[in-house]
Amino acid sequence: MLYELRVYDARAGKLPALNDRFANHTTGFFKDHGIGIVGFWTAEIGTSNQLTYMLSFDSMADREEKWAAFGADPRWQEVRAETEKDGAFVASIQNSFLRLTPYSPEPHMTTNIQEMRVYTAMTGKFPALNDRFANHTMKLFEKHGIENVGYWTSDVGTSNQLTYMLGYDGLGDREEKFGAFGSDPEWHKARAASEVDGLLTRRSQNSILRRTSYSP
């Protein structure tokens, strides 16, 4: 299964209209063309004009076929033209192609707040980073009531990045549970053992997201 992560930077004042178009039109067209929908999110903290969403496909060839069919759909073209008669909604688009790690659950969410984290591994340390998540970190997240939504590696481009998503009931819940995980002696032991020859990650990025009202 191939996953596509897309981040739209909406033009000033256009995010509500962009969300409305996804809710009332675009998601339906995606379903009509057999495009899988994992979720849609807006930023809970930070940039307020971004829409993040994730789609799924059987393969890159499947993605190219279905995305082209969606783009050529006269209904989509009509809706886009009508909704953008006063100007385009989106200023810029970022997308990346991902595949689930062997240890990842099938992506699912029972929570409303998600945290997306992207780790760039030190040279040669990516296998060890994945091993630590598979054998220690995920289990400790579960121990502290943190939802493991999904874990992905890049299918195209950077090969030493791990992208994963966690779920919480709210911001306070996130602070409490991630804090408890961070102070857990089991985590300190696992981290120390895995980093006896040096750190596993060179850089980490995170964003706190909230599912949109129309997201699965």
What can be said about this structure in brief?
β2 and β3 (50-57) form a beta hairpin.
Can you walk through the features of this model?
The protein has 216 residues and is an alpha+beta fold. It folds into 2 domains: 2-99, Alpha-Beta Plaits (2-Layer Sandwich); 100-211, 2-Layer Sandwich (Alpha-Beta Plaits), CATH 3.30.70. It has helices at 15-32, 60-72, 74-83, 126-143, 171-182, 185-194, and strands at 2-10, 36-43, 50-57, 90-100, 113-121, 147-154, 161-168, 201-211. It has an 8-stranded antiparallel β-barrel, surrounded by 4 helices. The longest helix has 18 residues, at 15-32.
What helical percentage do the residues reach?
25-40%
SS element count, helices: 6
| Number of spatially distinct domains | 2
Uncertain segments are none
Provide the CATH architecture of the largest domain. 2-Layer Sandwich
Let me know the number of strands.
8
- Please identify the structural class as seen in this structure: alpha+beta
- Report the β-strand fraction as a percent range: 25-35%
- Sheet with most strands: strand arrangement: 1-3-2-8-5-7-6-4
Shape: globular
Q: Report the sheet with the most strands, covering strand number, pairing sense and barrel closure.
A: 8 strands, antiparallel, barrel
Task: Quickly name the level 1 CATH class of the largest domain.
Answer: Alpha Beta
H-E string: EHEEHHEEHEEHHE
Distance N to C terminus: 18 Å
The average pLDDT score comes to 96
Fold-level CATH name of the largest domain: Alpha-Beta Plaits
